[in-house]
Amino acid sequence: MIIPPAAMPAVITNCLFTSLAFVVVCFRLGTRIFVVKNVGADDSLIAFAILASIGFLVVFMLQVKAGLGRAIMFPELPGFLQALWATVPIYNFALMLCKLSITVQCYRVLRTPHMARFLRVYMGVLAAYGAWSVLGNVFVCWPVDFYWLEPTGTLRGACMDKGAVTFSNAALNIVSDLVLIAVPVPLLWRLQLPRRQKIVLVCLFGGGAFACVTSIVRLHALYTIAVAPPAEQSVKGVDIAIWSSIEINVGIICASLPALKPVADKLFPRMLLSGLYARTKEAARSGGREAVGGFSGSGSHSGRRSKHVASKDAYSVHRAEIRVNQSFEMTSAPATAVPDTTNLDTRTVAPIGTDDGQTSRDGSERNLVTSSWHGDGCKTITITSDPRDMV
């Protein structure tokens, strides 16, 4: 196959970004399978998304073979339009899987009550929008082959307004990107974590902003090919092929970055966990008393918070912090000691609004102190607290 010089940038870009996304997804799946040992639905969705991206690359190369990047003769036009028609549903299918993977990941990590309800609804919205964007472009003309046979006049049929379908899908795509950026970032920023860790988490989950930028930049290329007559689309379709591939694969890469954090913690521990180290050293200097997420804990119930946190919002943020830490700190490491499960202190407390002598099962379960010894002689104290039970 001879590649026209005008199509060479598109070929290089498609191959490069698809290969990069494939490598990142392989690292992600390897991390989830062998390091974290916890594979979720979001990992399955991103695996199907990279397969769709590879399918887009295959159909794109068929476009190049059919004449992308050069002026084609009229008999070649149906073959080129057929390859062009095939790329659009695959492009939308890959984006839908990528966005669903990000949403499921947010649902698993940031599972506060309000956020969980919103994300469940948003998953349904994404699925409905994705089904429309795929099926609407498959059946944009009826019969289907009227899409590429219309210029020949050999078949009677009808098409929807292709420009309206294309730009409505592009607008919905940008809006869905903005939602996926706006939803997790504010909640992550309110977590009671060191600033450096918060910045890392926000960058990991906010990486979709790059995909949103590519979606906006792609609009110009989309307009160029939308207003071009069918005979000129082979020449003016190079830019849209470039930006479509970038958008798909950048989205896949950004969706996979949060899942790579356990590996990054091992490779760059001081950058990602320096706040945790500093807090541990401070706890050692204070005689085993450690502040976790803004709370003070020790072997007795005499610890007090400097501020009274009783609002529902603070409780949700604390629960979100626990969820984020659980999701990203589940890294696999060689066992250096046997956990001291006998040293489990479960206390009965009297939450706000109950009598001092009344036993509260809910309160006792929310205040657990577990400890374990490591081979280096250090003891790790883990405290899980409910802000509503602390004054």
From TrEMBL:
Assigned GO CC terms: membrane
A Pfam family per the record: Fung_rhodopsin
Transmembrane residue ranges: 6-25, 45-64, 84-107, 119-140, 170-189, 201-220
Domain of life the protein comes from: Eukaryota
Domain Rhodopsin: 28-264
Compartment list: Membrane
Keyword annotations: Membrane, Transmembrane, Transmembrane helix
Membrane topology of this protein: Multi-pass membrane protein
Family per record: Belongs to the SAT4 family.
Protein name: Rhodopsin domain-containing protein
